[in-house]
Specification:
The complex is a heterotrimer of chains A (414), B (361) and C (337). By secondary structure, chain B is mainly alpha-helical. Chain B has 15 helices and no strands. Chain C is 31% helix and 22% strand. Classes of the chains: A alpha/beta (414), B mainly alpha (361), C alpha/beta (337).
Amino acid sequence: MDSRPTPTSLIAILWIPWSVLRAAVRFISRLRSNIPGMIGFIGLVAYFIGTFIMPRFIEFDSEPNLDEIVGPIGSRIQLAVHRENAHLVTFEDLAGKTVGVVDQTGGPDLIAPYAHILTIEKYRWTSRRAGPGLEASLIDLANREIDALLIFSKTVTELITNQEDPELRALFNENIVISNRALGPPHLLGTDTQGRDIATHVVHGGRVLILTALIGGVISTSVALFLGSIAALTGGVLDSALTALTNLILAIPRFPLLVVMAGVIRFNNTLYLGVLIGLLGWPALMRAIRSQVLSLRERDFVEAARSLGLSTNHIMFREILPNMISYVMINFIFSITFAMYEQIGLVVLGLAPINDYTWGVMLYFGRSRGTLYNPDGASMALSPVLAIAFFQVCLVLFARALEEIFDPRLRAAV
Amino acid sequence: MASQSLNAPLETPGFDRIIDALGRALKSYTVRVFVQAILTIWAVATLTFLLVREMPGNPIDVLIEQILTQEGISYQEAYDRVAASFNFDPDASLLDLYFDWLGDLLRFDLGTSITSPGTEVIDEIARFLPWTVFAVGMGLLISFVLGIVLGMTMAYYRDSFLDHSLSFLSSFMTGVPNYIWGLLIIIVLGIQFNLFNVGELRGTYDIRLVPGLNAEFLLSVCKHAALPIATYVIATLGGWMLNMKSSTMGVLNEDYVNVAEARGLKDKRIITSYVGRNASLPLFTQLTIAVGFVLGSGVVIEEIFVYWGIGHYLFQAITVRDYTSMQGVFLILTMAVVFSNLFADLTYGMLDPRVRISGER
Amino acid sequence: MSSSVIDLKRVYRSFKSGRDIVPVLQDINISVNRLEFLCLVGESGCGKTTTGKIICGLLPPSAGIVEFEGADIASLRGEDYRRFRRSVQIIHQDPYASLNPTQTVSEMLSYPLVRHKLAPRGRGVLQRVHELLELVDLTPVGDFVNKYPHQLSGGQRQRVSIARALTTEPSVIVADEAVSMVDVSIRIGILQMMMDLRDRLDVTIVFITHDLALAKYFAWDGRIGVMYLGRLVEIGRTQEIIRDPQHPYTRVLLSAIPEPDPEKTRSKQHIQLRSEDIPRLTELPPGCSFHPRCPWYMAEVCDQEVPELSVSFQSGSDVEVACIPLQRGTELVLHDA
């Protein structure tokens, strides 16, 4: 008897969340038979956890280490030792030894607990491929001036085996071995150009994007809903004016307009961008909602409600709106994908604020610093690309599942 | 209907007759959509005019400010210089300026570039636009044809494994933003698998070649456009597939298809001339609408592949704050969208006899 | 005027369709008498549904007056209007379109009860919903209260629709083709129930149908109004009209009803129309709009003047007919087809 409208204080308050819950349970039970929809739904839940909850537990790695370091997926510290010291494998083994550290990814942090048992020799790093710092440290190691060397890049193996200088190649190959490739915690997705952990950036890089897209989606959907219903219900001059305005805005290519506006206004807050995207994004949905209301208004059950003397409010909110709500929800999801598309497009072009380190900003830096074109940078280039791609795909899969579930032709058969 | 009113006998060119003919012409569908298109372009043009001139922090004020602080000349001098590059008379009133500007627009005079004085914006657009039209046009054509074939296949084998996997794939193709597809092509195919040299494919053709109708040049043009085209194809294909599938399924339920089968017509003939023709009809309208969207999103794609089309030109204009160029490109893009929609409205009537008969939609 | 509940006086109604103005109803005069059974019959497009909506006050007439218990409904305000609103209800043709797919049966029935305070809140409303469902034979009630429309069959939906119309305790119910979309096998059940309800609840029923046979069965002790192209062409007691139809159009309709006895049907004289084409509402012929098809057409008479409803000259009954030759007492001559 939950559905009975008895607006006596407590029951009325509980009725709304209860009916939402009921709808959600019904919806998920229907979703079970729709595999792509389930994938999308689970994906979105995972994205929510990953971008809104996990950042509370995983700290953003903002500590830039040496320049121009791009660690491969799963990169960890490698321990290079002189061939005679091949038994040195762990930090404990290194007690009392002189250890060279090429100052990179999390290096100082990692060594800190052992700093008191090691004698540390620091080397500067200048360039990733033929860094004289790294080369010098290798020469020192080969000459036993240091006992071990902590290295944070896969390129060291390359430097040893593919050394162009035959003398150095012989020296390195004869004297140096990598005794441990997995010292310290791994970087799940490797490190970026500044030696920072990419995985933490991925975790932290979605929140602002998703929030902005949500703002854009909420604004465009509610403006569309509001204007569409107003136009359909009032008719006359207001309807004609709103329809004309909608057609005008629809004729303007939206993305170039945003590009031009962003170029002129130069936003400093991502959320404003969401507002702008929302304010430009309503016309298509408004047209659809207007025609939906126009058609629903003429339905027999609305006429029956009028005949029963039910109020205009009742007719709008209880008779018409519930029949559009699934359509509106589906379009809300699609409007989020549009907002996502547009804002990331602007960020990639460098026309949107880059003060939050989002997936879009990762792409922007990847392009402007050239790491996208770096064969070692696959992880750095692909992490934001795939994060964005899968988020969008999850949204689309979910929305399409909703479309199928709420398709009235299919529902009539249920 | 349009031809009727235009061919109406005009023996007595009285005022009433003209008004009457005009009235009837306005009622004709063709004329009405045409007038609507012109009005839309006019409205957008006016809007841009006002934005550039009257918005707080508008480009003209910003430029004057910039010249004032940089060169320390008088306000009037700075204003005159800005006026010269925006191609307007510094002493005229706003309304006069507006009509001047509209007049220039009618003669396709979009002013000169601010950052490189002496360069006509319209010439620059004429230089960059064909490349975009080529890439976008090819991309849409390929994806449209592919989408129709795949969509019909999905409809014929509906609920098969093929249908489900293609439909899942189409969610991927439409869901992933087109620039992300572009980046994936570059990163995975170009950099990781080293299938092509990304750096060499910048621009619209190999600059060492002299443009001309020779095989070498044309090959270079195709090679340079291949990646943007591939991106447009991937990003739009999914949409065509799904639309064609649902459209085909609608047609397959129609009686005339059953009748055709009952008449013993060959399957191939039914598929092509009965189902294919009727099912793809509504997609033609969507094709012209897609032109607008793809043209617009070309800004990022061309930037990513460094393909020198109109989007690249727009982006360059924005980075150096070349407002006249921005304004010009924006107007041209809007016109492209409006005219492609107009084209859709007009051709739909020719393609679909149901619309042709009633003359109205 | 005490015997009539609703009076339509010189009611016109037109709709705009593109640039055309379509006259759907012209000069309709009907009195719906208290507790009677009135059947409006006609082909699709004759304006019978529009008439029904105007009777319900759901559509204002373009011209003319609709009176409820003697008062013009356009002038009703406040409590008077609400009383009229409650008193006249409609049952739609399509049970799939007339129930809101997002509401349960109990929601649908309780909204008007709460709105008009027709039952004490809480338990009272619930109890009344149960009573209403029992009234329309949706038993056991527990199986239906929390169902959504898509979980019900066509016949069940139509019963819900009737129950909903009864929530406001109306005195007039307009049933617009109420059984035409229901399976033939359950039609009679619903019709029987409606007849019972009329006797038990004292409601006047205006039954709109295209099926004269149904009207004959349903309104045997009531009246029938025959409509053609937006005009009422004949109205009178069912038994008289069936026994002795006056207006040519009614005669044609009646001759088309198959009799239960096939021999009878075959031997029955089938009147041939002069034309099968129904004129468009926008291009109505001058004079009597039936004349281009009328088998008894009289040149110079029927195409000149629009006939008005009045008592037929020859018959002694009070059946009213809109046919000039009949009103003048001219002998009708059947044309050869």
